[in-house]
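Hey L., structure's done. Input below.
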Amino acid sequence: MPSRCLITALALAAALVPRTSLSGEAAPPLRPNVLFISVDDMNTDLGVYGSPVVKSPNIDRLAARGVRFERAYCQYPFCSPSRSSVLTGLRPDRTRVFDLYYHFRTELPTVVTLPQLFMRNGYVTSRVGKVYHYGNPDDIGTSGLDDPPSWQEVVNPAGIDKTALESDVINLTPAKKALGSAVAYLADPRGKDEEHTDGKVATEAIRMLEKHRGQPFFLAVGFYRPHCPYIAPQAHFDAYPLDRISLPEEPEPARLLPAPALQSTKPWPYFGMTREQLREAKRSYYAAISFVDAQIGRVLDALDRLDLRRNTVVVFWSDHGYHLGEHGLWHKKSLFEESARVPLIVALPDGRGAGAVIRRTVELIDLYPTLAELAGLVPPADLDGASLRPLLENSQHRWDRPAFTQVHLGSFGGRSVRTERWRYTEWDEGGRGVELYDHDADPRERVNLAASPDHRAVVDQMKALARRNWPVPVAPGKAERTGAKGVRSRGQE
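Output:
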């Protein structure tokens, strides 16, 4: 007998698009499609998240017709570990993916990925651009890394930003040779959006929407920007005059924080950039956001033109956040809010909850069970996340799940627990430092309360949550201990 969860999910799917046959009798419900849009290294500096500067009209309009999650968090603020967790529904301690090379099937050969679940249930599963991490795993199974494959159809576009312009990029951090980890930018004076990689991603995604409009599909569209190097056509840079770009506030003294908290940026602060270089870097990052926002708009326009919006669940997410100078940091792989927090928007086919804002604490691993339930599919029983459907239906639904984010720094790790009010972080089981921040009073996490006698009870409560999720110390993955066995990623992060 089907479970109560499955029955409710099927009822929801049936309610999404009612149909009648020629005889007037009710026809079987259409199965909802999924348009799964990911971006790379995008933080919440977006118009709909309150930025007074960033221009993101297409992401904003998706939020207006969907549900925006205010407190959504990644499980590991680094590309491959985060994406592996999203697509398996499992935390990094189970996938064992802590770097860019290790492949989760080494540890979990029979795991059913999110697109595989849809494929097994009659969906066409297609991918355009970066959804896993640059060929790790091999998406179509030809090398045995992802076998059975997650996708039936794969397109890997490469535009002029990758094939012609990278040699002209301005590197503000010359000690970093790999452009994927440098702070580097280029305003392309001649190129058009459609000639850049993300423009080609949008073009191919539109083609796939047209191709599969008559059958249930799971289409994953992975955009590469605003990942460094920040390359975009000049027009997107022109939208951000330098004098409108604010500089990051001076970082708190390093002695006030555990040393590992600042290790993601070396040299600290700001990779040694000057204040004017910081302004240029921030402007370039914002230009890359506006560029990719325009490409997302093209895909959303096609969804409407093809009359697919009425039967498609649209998900927009970033693999992790991104520092733009906060705490003296740049890039990601920290356990501060700016690195762990992500934009997340879910738009249902029937417009239910349009414009709603969810302030509960959720995780990216919640997407797997959510999409399974919305499509009426039965997910694996051992997923680590929880379906967000109750929150999609009622933004005030009772929800007390914290979010867990972790990193590894060589031989030890950091673990962070986020509730609606508090962030608690410990390094090396607390042996290398502990942090506690009160987001009601200190949303920028500038005052570490971990040593305050007045907050001892809160520290104990948050530590207990950490121990519940991480009952024993977890060493780095095999790839970190013995060297990578998977496919390398051209120096990108």
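DSSP finds 15 helices and 17 strands in the chain. Residues 275-305 form the longest helix (31 residues).

-- N.
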